[in-house]
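Q: Structure tokens for this one, please.
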Amino acid sequence: MDFRFAAIFNRGITVELLNDGCYFSGKTVSVFVNGEEVLREERNVFTLTGLQPDNDYEILVLDGEEKISHTVHTKAESVLLNVKTFGAAGDGVTDDTRTLQAAVYACPKGGTVYLPAGTYLCTPLFLRSDMTLYLEEGAVILGDPDRTHYPMLPGMIRGTDEVSEYNLSSWEGNPLTSFASLITAIDVKNLDVLGPGTIDGNAQNGDWWINAKKKHIAWRPNLVFLNHCEHVNMAALTIRNSPCWTVHPYYSDHLRFLDLTIQNPYDSPNTDGFDPESCTDVKLVGTRISVGDDCIAVKSGKIYMSMEHFKRTTGIEIRNCSLERGHGSVTVGSEIAGGVTDMHVHHCLFTQTDRGIRMKTRRGRGSRSVLDDIVFDHIIMDRVHMALTVNMFYYCDPDGHSDYVQNQDPLPVTEETPRIGTLRVKDVKCTGAEACFACVYGLPEMPVERIDLENIDVSFLPQEQRTAREPIMMDHFMKMDGKSFYLRNVKEVRLRGITVRGSADSAPELINVGAQDVEQLDYQS
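A: Here is the predicted structure, written as tokens:
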């Protein structure tokens, strides 16, 4: 056994145990800081806070008789600004926006804005570069439920030169005017946001979830919005009750999100947990997500942003996470016109989500919408209705049901035709499957290039416990019940070392599939 430091802050460190477990290590370890036991932990990723800046610490992990220790030096800090000294009440009633914002703007380079225990009622806070926002245990930033108190961010502003554009906000892949988020960072670099406190959007006490798809003054905000930021780290926070998407990194690079808990009610609309959009080098580690929509949705905008502000999402790693309920555990799309490449998801738990691995696109996303080099491995799925779905006929947007989007005959390949390259899924254990294990439907004029599935063990619920469901959201598609593999319009399929238990069929259904490499496919009753 060994461990590493996943992130180092001025007043905390995030530790990651190195093993083959998915989110949990399978045992309880004791953790010591400078010889004093501070916690016992079953998760692979945890954060030690309450440390002092610019200090050496010996971290020892005791696993039975085995002891592993490493020394770490915390980051330096120029000053600690307690928001109470700026006049913050922290009583959950007084509007503390001005006092917290004053502390942020007074914070010098390398400084920390510190929130002691208390509830700080706020409208959006705008963070700055080269600072730390530190929420002590029991500290809650609570969103004002009244949308009329929120400033708006224009989606796109024409530059003074009448040529350039300045993008401040986004709504579902388009540059549309939205309310500012409770935590907003625009063009910020070198920012740390550290718990163990809570960021609470308080959406259940406002009207954010009522007529959610209708614009009211402006579009709904995210809870955390990082716009054109670099080198941002967030750790050890609880982030909950978002008006819309919860954590939304946007056109940002070199981001680390560690040991977070992201929670929204199961019936809250469009409350995705984590949505990196047009970002590079993003790591989500040791995070638990349970929300009302997709737990994770990796995006790159709609066609206008791809044509005018092209930036592909690439270099995404998701590891040691627990993804619960929600529409999809990990989704790619559908606002995906810039494409997604080089994405790796591993050592994760998917529990009771509608879909586990979900890729969705459609005609109209454009030729830059390339989804390629996407890998999932070491995944445990439990009671996921549909483990793997790939849908190139997704019926989103006002024209989603049009003949152009839904026509299943080959259409001409144009600048509006998206492409899916290689998806690799291996070392997966799936229990309690229901509708299907894998449903893949490519475009007839642009088939999925390669589906590679290896070392998979899937067992279905008993027939009397299953409900027939539509695995992919396209017009006139069948419901499935106990289907193992349905793959259509795929150039190359590789199925190796797969065991299927309790399915309603006894062989894969492959339609318009080119090269087929099928070995060690074992169906058991």
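A few notes: The first strand starts at residue 2 and ends at 8. Helices lie at 97-106, 303-308, 403-406.
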